[in-house]
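Human: Respectfully, please carefully check these tokens:
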Amino acid sequence: MFKALLLEKDDAGFRAGVTTLDEARLPAVSEGAVLVQPEYSTINYKDALALTNRSPVVRLWPMVPGIDGAGTVLESQHADWKAGERFVLNGWGVGETHWGCLAERARLKGDWLVRLPGAFTPRQAMAIGTAGYTAMLCVQALERHGVAAGAGDVLVTGATGGVGSIAIALLARRGHKVVAATGKASETGYLTSLGASSVIDRAELGAPGKPLQKERWAAVVDAVGSQTLANALAQTRYGGVVAACGLAQGMDLPASVAPFILRGVTLAGIDSVMAPRARREAAWSALAAELDPRLLESMVTEIGLDGAIDAARQMMEGRTRGRVVVRV
């Protein structure tokens, strides 16, 4: 038996709560199954959507949410894994179509797991989580497209969120001049402590604007989407790069082709859910080499499993910052 956060939806409506389940209820895996004990998980934006039933994230009911997990392998039918080894999981549809890691047990595909870098404890890995792993994918995409340190201001939207917070720290460490966009003026000190050189009000980017605007950004990491992404594109300098990884403001993109055909701007889409294993391992290796674990502590709020639902509500109301780590 194990404790889990279970989401249910039927004719009686939507329900979410911590319960005790029999291990026999864990979903089967077609091949290479690994039984794991998550020690820590997180509340990501996608988890918050699922836990509050605000969006059709969950595709199979009932569901154990938790798209991230870090902990210990208990049993393995996969050649690459054996009992006692430490793992990190991000994405792969876990928490959407397959039971996730907001539970004391999970049965996963061994191909989905990445070895926990020796530089991190499971808690630290979840302080990074999908948000930090996505932030590293964004930074790597910018530099892969030729954005070098000293090229100019790099805008980070949704700056107090998980992706934004870690993107600021990573970009600053690599020598980029970072401008953070946020709606929380009270968090200016937090953002500058992470490495932001200046902070702007997100309202500057949130309203409809011209297809081409004054050139401001050498590059952008955007976790917001919609009008914010459209304005970021319109303000990106000639030859600049925008890495898009989120949709906190919306899935739409009310923009024109002008930035692309008149300024040669590149829009790089960042997918963290189904990214191939080699790219995941490269991102986690870079995080282990570059991200100071001590810096993570300023970003982290730790809760227990029974606090996850309230934390999800707070996230949907914009009342969280940085990373919410769940002690499973």
